[in-house]
Amino acid sequence: MLKQTGLRFSLVILVGVLLGLVMSLGPGGHVAMSQNSNTLKVGLIVPASKTDHGWNEQAADSLLALEGPLNIKVEIAEQAGYGDISPIFLDFAKRGFDLVICHASGYQTICPELAKQTGVKTAVVENPHAVAKGLVSDYESQAQDVAYLAGVAAGLMTKTNIVGIVVSGEPPTWNFITTGFAEGLHSVNPNAHLLYTLIGAAAYEDVADAKRDTAAELAAGADVILGQGDGASFGMMQAISEKKKNSGKQVWFIDVIGDKRSLDTEGVLLTSVLFDFTKVFTPMIQDIRNGDFGKVYTLDMANGGMRLLDFPGSVPAKVRAAVAQAKANILSNKLQVPAISDPGQMHKLLKKLFPGSF
Amino acid sequence: MEVEAFITVLLSASLRASIPMLLAALGEAYNEKGGILNLGIEGMMLGGAFSGFAVALITGSVFLGFMTGVAVGAISGLIFAYLSVTLKLDQIITGIGFTILMVGLTGFLYRYFYGRNFPTLGVSKKTLAIPFLSKIPVIGPVLFDQHVVVYLTLLLIPLLHWILFHTTFGLNIRAVGETPGAADAAGVNVAQIRYLVAVFAGAMAGLGGAFLSLGNLSLFVPGETQGIGYIAIAMAMLGKWSPYRVFIGAWLFGMVESLAVGLQIIAVPVQPEFILMLPYVGVIVAMVFLARNARLPAKLMLPYERGER
Questions:
Q1: A22 burial type by CB count under 10 A (0-12 exposed, 13-18 middle, 19+ buried)
Q2: Chain A window 205-264: which residues touch B at a Cβ cutoff of 8 Å?
Q3: How big is the CA angle at B121 (ends B120 and B125), to the nearest 5 degrees?
Q4: What is the distance between the alpha carbons of residues A164 and B259, in angstroms, rounded to a whole number?
Q5: Where are the domains of chain A?
Q6: Using an 8 Å Cβ cutoff, are B251 and B88 in contact?
Q7: Would you tell me how many other CB atoms lie within 10 Å of the CB of residue A153?
Q8: Virtual CA dihedral for B194, B195, B197, B199, nearest 10 degrees?
């Protein structure tokens, strides 16, 4: 009896292991081997799905696009979560990777420590203090400039004069976008009412709560919503699409990082703050070869790393012109948008700009 | 801001959002009363959410999607019962393993079938308004303009309570969870009862997951349940395994979550992080007052071996 039970148990374990192997080597996996001695092996650790139409996908796609041009081989560790990523990092180190990119602000402390421990070159997000010559680089997404343009568009497109922001967390990147957006909104529509809702501390994939929070802002009268969610953005877009379909009124969604036009069946997508990480990964990899690794790399509007997704045809010419003018002012340094990454400072700024709202 | 409309939306959302958790918690209450702790509820919800969505997408029938979600949940419950009742494996390890497997499997299948397409079931009005009643201010839209699964769930609560506490079958379930030896001596088939409650709990979790993807969101993304299954397990214990109490607990949790959203929107001058803690603080406070005298079923998690004392 005991032997039979043991056999059954072994069978269950075997099936589990086989399933695990199938899943890890399936179409989602990206396993690469070094091609020649000049090929750099680059590991990318992302907290969620590499196909999230957002933060993780843009980094994964940008790095994969550089495989041929920069002679690198990329391996992506996705769904790493926001907990302890040491086993993943140490596995990359053990297998002789030349660079590990830790693509989440939640990794900005642990990865420099692991870099020191292993000696593997490492890139972190939004932590310039961790930069160490030859060992740790930092890349920054200075999204406030392009978010300012989105704020200008929102301020001119709102009919209810209520604009909403829904965020899945308050990491530096989201805070840069929030502050830039609020500044842009204030510049063209200082009397607008601004709503702000935080879904959770790290609710980046929480679709259901993202939908609930967005629906609540719409119920409060907002007709333009800036949604910063990653995977959670799908819930935001669904809430806005349902609002438009059920009410017959135009409501707009401003997305960040990815391009969701192919998913926009109801015509709610006004624009998106697009990120192109090739603009930071390219110099970073070149600097490894040049022996100059260990810097801060910046992704911004000036270097083409950030831009607004093209507006739909229904957006009036005066809105396009206002956005174009603001862009020209920023690029010519006539206008400087504050870069605020700290959540406390960001909330203070929102209160200062929109005292009637907060 | 239209205050009435705003409050109505928040309350309505709180009820709708609590349904997946409530369905899973009701099933888990039966499970635990029968002596089984299923930490795989989260995974079974994911299985129901994904399979229900996939079938609804293929067939165009939301009804078939719901049925598939229930079936996948029930089959998952059957497998869990085989592992925990027949093979007598540790229920905690089996449950956690089941959830990990389903997280990986649904994520893999989603990527395999849909890649980067992120299909949705489109945008449609999902609620069924009951004439006259749905027109009552605030309460009407909250209670009488809901998805049909919400109505069915509300009807299920008294039925499940009656079965568990006022029928011989319910007595057998409770007996199996408390004194399986005595139940066995009285002619109750312990293994059969435990299989039944495990399959039922799986089916309810599958329905809860399917409601999330079909009734609430009209889409599926990997990891969609976001820990609702685990909160459902806490709700079953918080409600002392009484369907009425479980319902109150689940809706209160949903309401406090909605309250947290509402407080942010009206810009109460408190840190958002503090506001977001409220639902969990609420659960802890509720457990202190409601569940402090709760006593776990005596044979919870313990496999039954005939002749053992």
A1: middle
A2: 205-209, 211-213, 215-217, 219-221, 231, 234-235, 238, 241-242, 244-246, 262-263
A3: 125
A4: 18
A5: 28-142+277-299, 144-274+307-353
A6: no
A7: 26
A8: 160
Q: Which chain A residue shows the shortest CA-CA distance from B277?
A: A200
The pair of structure tokens assigned to A323 is 């956005």
Query: In this structure, are residues B264 and A198 in contact, taking their beta carbons and an 8 Å threshold?
Result: yes
CATH class of the domain comprising A144-274+307-353:
alpha beta
Domains A28-142+277-299 and A144-274+307-353 in one fold = yes
Full pLDDT tens readout for chain A, 358 residues:
444 544 454 444 445 444 544 443 333 344 444 456 689 999 999 998 888 888 999 999 999 999 999 999 999 999 898 889 999 999 999 999 999 999 998 999 999 999 999 999 999 998 999 999 999 999 998 899 999 999 999 999 999 999 999 999 999 899 999 999 999 999 999 999 999 999 998 898 899 999 999 999 999 999 999 999 988 999 999 999 999 998 999 999 999 998 899 899 999 999 999 999 999 999 999 999 999 999 999 999 999 999 999 999 999 999 999 999 999 999 999 999 999 999 999 999 999 999 988 8
Interface test with A, best of B265, B266, B276, B278 (most A CBs within 10 A): B265
A60 closest CA partner among A35, A80, A38: A80
- Distance (Å, whole) CA A106 – CA A101: 13
Select the CATH number that applies to the domain covering A28-142+277-299 from these four: 3.90.180.10, 3.40.50.2300, 3.40.50.10540, 3.40.50.1470. 3.40.50.2300
Q: How far is CA B245 from CA A204, B159, B200, B285, in A?
A: 32, 14, 19, 15
Token pair belonging to B13: 């959302």
Structure ipTM: 0.87
Domains along chain B with CATH numbers: 3-116+146-290 (1.10.3470)
Min Cα separation A252/chain B (Å)? 15
The tokens of A266 are what?
């109801």
Q: How far is A80 from chain B (nearest CA, A)?
A: 12
